[in-house]
User: Fold this.
Amino acid sequence: DSGVTQTPKHLITATGQRVTLRCSPRSGDLSVYWYQQSLDQGLQFLIQYYNGEERAKGNILERFSAQQFPDLHSELNLSSLELGDSALYFCASSAGQGGTGAQYFGPGTRLTVL
Amino acid sequence: GIQVEQSPPDLILQEGANSTLRCNFSDSVNNLQWFHQNPWGQLINLFYIPSGTKQNGRLSATTVATERYSLLYISSSQTTDSGVYFCAGRGNTPLVFGKGTRLSVIA
Assistant:
């Protein structure tokens, strides 16, 4: 158990819908990262927050947005869903801003868009 | 950005065999991790190893930072070792993952 929690574990929805994925980092960790794992793209970094502020952005679509709240939990919002958004979404956390130190991954949310 | 190349892409082992997985980086990294993704999709941290050698039970890892590669050794493999092994590194970019080595251990 990494100490990172994600909800829900599974999500099935239809094209055009909007969903919210939730992540709670390990106790004491200030950075939260979101990753997408799809069959064709592999594991890709989406976005990082550090202590409530956006720190780095990767291959995140404009239809996707995220935020980190004062209690440090984070939410990833996916809107106008397409079939290609079906993937495993991971959240990770680390103590610092991410330059060094391990990232710890949650169990993931498996999103299926029908 | 950094490119991460893992080899071999696939590996089939008999239970009890040893194996070495390799990860090459196109540029220097100051953060290197190895992960095991089990058949249920969970990503499990194996090692945080930007340089040097570490051991944890039947697993060990060595990173030669100056030559931009890392090795993961699995000894006396068990069926529970099956899954995909990823290495990931970062320099001035976010963590970049390789495509993984898919390991199947057969009883």
